[in-house]
Amino acid sequence: MSRSVRTRPEASGQALSEAYDTALLDLDGVVYAGGNAIVHAVQSLATARAGGMRLAYVTNNALRTPDAVAGHLTELGIPTGAEDVITSAQAVARLISEQVPAGARVLVIGGEGLRVALRERGLVPVESADDDPAAVVQGFGGPDLTWGRFAEASYAVARGVPWFASNTDLTIPSGRGIAPGNGAAVEVVRIATGAEPQVAGKPLPPMHRETILRTGAERPLVVGDRLDTDIEGAFNGEVDSLLVLTGVTDGAQLLAAPPQHRPTYVDRDLRGMLTGQPEVTADGGGFRCGGWTAAAGAERLELSGEGENLDGLRALCAAAWSAAGAGVCQLDAGKALARLGL
Predict the structure, then answer these.
(1) Given the DSSP bridges, would you call strands 105-109 and 85-87 parallel, antiparallel or unpaired?
(2) Which of 17, 113, 182, 244 is the most exposed place for a label (fewest CB within 10 A)?
(3) What is the DSSP string of 207-232?
(4) Which pTM value belongs to this model?
(5) At 299, phi and psi to the nearest 5?
(6) Which residue from 76, 236, 99 is spatially nearest to 164, judged by alpha carbons?
(7) Residue of 246, 237, 241, 208 lying closest to 222 (CA atoms)
(8) Which one, of 91, 46, 26, 53, lies nearest residue 219 by Cα?
(9) Percentage of the residues of the chain whose pLDDT score is greater than 90
(10) In angstroms, rounded to a whole number, what is the distance separating the alpha carbons of residues 71 and 55?
(11) Each residue of 245-280: pLDDT tens digit?
(12) Do 257 and 277 form a contact (C-beta atoms < 8 A)?
């Protein structure tokens, strides 16, 4: 059965932290940026936790171990245990363990996070294509990963060893700007071998499965800042999502989102977990939210009214997504977004 196409953000009469039992939180751009906590994140998460919501932190970065991630969050003032962190390294290790014998050797092109996750599944990390690996796995290895590591992967993959990747994010944020991510490293081996890896990380199902298995969530809410990983991952897992505007996604990208990138809810930051969400209603030929009304014109999105700017954005989402249907809205949104300061 095909899913219906989302044409507007949904409303919630309850605080989201009460309506859902577990928040599946992305990290960079949601909880912290450049290693520092994002404004309102620490207090919002503490309040949600105190109210009974479980917090789980879900990251595509396979470099750091859950212990390291939990330690960083705790230092920021967000008490976290390793069991609260789910990484793409864990997801890909499970995927590999289901396809190779127990105790098999796996050639690792990446960092400590991958090695720890493989050992957890009873697999043996090795460093060379000459170590007779049963699989090859690639994950982000940080700036010191040398060219020779990609050669080792290529030698093994070219002779038919199954190839896995923790994720294929082409870029990763750093304190100095945007750097190449694991997806860029995967491309090196793909070009050298012509092969295609099995991928575990967001937005693909193995990552969502790993998260649910580890958290036991029954009513999860994915909270993220990226449409193509966090929100699409929620779509693929058929669970609800909250997009926060503290990371990479801006208003124009949100309005142009195809169906798989349309979040259930939109809010400014993690304080949105602690409140209900306003209703967006049809109003004549347009859509109303709060004091704003948005409509799709012949060439552009039109916005009228006044009030909370986020309500204006929600109304614009309804106008854009309804006009686009299962496609992508091509209408000019510049003037409307400028009025909202977005």
Answers:
(1) unpaired
(2) 17
(3) HHHHHHHHH--SSEEEEES-IIIIIH
(4) 0.94
(5) -125, -20
(6) 99
(7) 241
(8) 53
(9) 92
(10) 15
(11) 999 899 999 999 999 999 999 999 999 999 999 999
(12) no
Strand order in the sheet with 286-289: 281-283, 286-289, 292-296, 301-305
Q: Do 318 and 294 touch, CB atoms closer than 8 A?
A: yes
CA dist., res. 93 & res. 116, Å (int): 9
Rounded Cα gap, residues 61 and 43, in angstroms: 25
pLDDT in tens, 154-209: 999 999 999 999 999 988 877 677 789 999 999 999 999 999 999 999 999 999 99
Strand partners, 140: none
Q: What average pLDDT is seen over the chain?
A: 96
Which residues have a catalytic role annotated?
A: 26, 28
Q: Which of 90, 134, 139, 130 is nearest to 111 (CA)?
A: 139
Measured distance CA(47)–CA(58) in Å, rounded = 19
Beta strands in the chain (DSSP E): 22-25, 32-33, 36-37, 54-59, 85-87, 105-109, 124-126, 135-138, 163-165, 171-174, 177-180, 198-199, 220-224, 240-244, 265-267, 281-283, 286-289, 292-296, 301-305
DSSP, residue by residue, 242-280: EEETTSS--HHHHHT--GGG--SEEESSGGGGGS-B---
